Amino acid sequence: MSNNNLPDKVFQTWEKWLEVNKKRCHLHFDLEGGSILNHVDMSMKSANNTVNRIVNDLPNQFKPRRILEIGASVGFNSIALAEYYSYAEVFSVEPDKEAVGVAEAMANHLSINYKPIVGVGEKLNFPNGYFDLIVCHTVIEHVNDVSEVIREMARVLSPGGYIHLDAPNYMWPYEPHLAIWCLPMLGKQLVRVFAVIQGKRKELWYIEHLKFVTPYYLERQYKDNGLKWENRVVSKLLNSIEGDAQIVRYRKTAKVVKSLGKIAFIQNILLLIIRLGLYPSVMYTVKK
Question: Does 245 reside within a domain?
Fold first, then answer.
């Protein structure tokens, strides 16, 4: 994707979204690189890296015909998916209509097979089994009803299709949106106390917006909907203990885990930590 000559219409949709965005619950949004052009360029590079990670997590022979992204915002990941899987139809749902306007303007400019739609994950207006791949990254913790979103994803997923889901893990003692250390598993009231202690009193309202998802809760939802899953964090951590893999997202963590994993006593502690779900993010590949 070349971003050097974005037409006026695309700039106008960006400017409209940025103006509205200031009044909404985007806590720490800033244009990467300080301008729309730089932001688009840097965000597309990040989206391409995300798509490469998705592709690497899926079987080599997997060729999705229809792809859906849940909570696409302005559509960078969906654009990258449409460019990588150029033969596929790519859709996204996003409740922010101005963000959808940006995604639509960019898709038209690039002439790619991508259709962004205003909508929510709790009500996907698609037939049963319509999509071969569903992407849901750092979104499931923001929805109104986590179980309903997973139920809907399972409904519109085709047999043999995959969901690629990433989110914060609220078993981990850190809340990434407010950037505070806390104990989310003990409830929002205690998180509010930690937020005040760490100088985030003005951002307390945002806590109500969050759903504190955990590996245990998500895996119960997968099971209830007849889905099979791979916990990619656990797989990569276990492989790192054995010295067989690197965790690209947590490169320093991987080195520490690999080193400590050579000590039997420490290895048992690490295995216990993994089984307790004490890691920063949930990353799943889910199959129907």
Answer: no
- CA–CA distance from 121 to each of 82, 126, 142, 146, 217 (Å)? 20, 11, 10, 9, 18
Q: Enter the tokens of residue 1.
A: 């994707």
SS3 142: coil
The residue to which tokens 């909508």 are assigned: 119
β-bridge mates for residue 164, sequence order: 135, 285
Closest by Cα among 225, 252, 228, 230 to 240: 252
Residue recorded with tokens 């006593």: 265
- Could you tell me the CATH number of the domain that includes residue 83? 3.40.50.150
Q: Is residue 270 a part of any domain in this protein? A: no
CA distance linking residue 73 with residue 47, whole number of Å: 12
Instruction: Give me the number of domains the chain comprises.
Output: 1
Tokens of 285: 């590949």
Residue 159 domain flag: yes
Bridge-based pairing of strands 281-287 and 157-168 is antiparallel
What pLDDT digit, counting tens, does each position of 223-269 carry? 999 999 999 998 887 776 655 544 455 555 555 555 655 555 667 77
Token pair 């951002």 in the structure block, residue: 203
Q: By residue range, what is the domain housing residue 18?
A: 8-168
pLDDT tens sequence across 156-183: 999 999 999 999 999 999 999 999 999 9
Q: pLDDT tens digits for 47-81?
A: 999 999 999 999 999 999 999 999 999 999 999 99
Taken in order 64, 69, 75, 80, the sign of the CA dihedral is negative
